[in-house]
Amino acid sequence: MRHSTRILIAIGTAAMLAGCSSSLISSRDRPDEFAVQRQAPLVIPPDFEIVPPAPGAPRPAEGTAAQQALEVLFPPQERSAVETSALDRAGDPEVSIRSTVGDPNTYTVDKGSTTRTIIAAPEGDGQAARAVIPG
C-alpha cells in the first residue's frame, strides 16, 4: 500500500511537471522581451530659427497641468435648448451685482431661521420628519 501511494504521487508529480515543460511555453507566439532595438539617430531640423524652450516651461500646445485636468474632468459641452432658453430669458447680469447685494440700502426680506432650517435639513424621503412646535 505504501509503495503504490508513493508510485501514484511520483506519477502525478511527473505529469504536473510535464505540463510545465519549456517546450510548451516556448511554442507560444509571444514577443521576445530580451530583444533590443536600435534607436534612430537624432536629426537636426532643417529650420535653424527654432528657439529651444526655457527649462521648466510648459509646451505651447499642451498648456498647464491644471488646464489639462480641467479639460479631462469637465469636457466642453454644448448647452441644451432648455438651458439656452433659460439663460436668454434671464438676460445679462448687472456688472455691479456683488456690490449691490452687500449694500445696506438694498431691500431684502429676512426669512428667519425656519428657511435656514429647511435648507440645512438632510435629504431623505421624509418618513422620519417631525414637526417641532416651539412652545
Fraction of residues in H or I helices: 40-55%
Q: Overall 3D geometry?
A: flat
Give the number of DSSP strands: 0
Cα separation of the termini: 91 Å
Rg over CA atoms: 37 Å
Structural class: mainly alpha
Largest sheet: none
Structure description:
The protein has six helices and no strands. About 40% of the residues lie in helices and about 0% in strands. The chain has helices at about 1-20, 20-25, 65-75, 80-90, 95-100, 115-120. It has about 140 residues and is mainly α.
Features:
about 140 residues, mainly alpha, flat
Question: How is the secondary structure organized here?
Answer:
Layout: H1 2-19, H2 22-26, H3 65-73, H4 81-90, H5 97-101, H6 113-120
Tell me briefly what this model is.
With 135 residues, this protein is mostly helical.
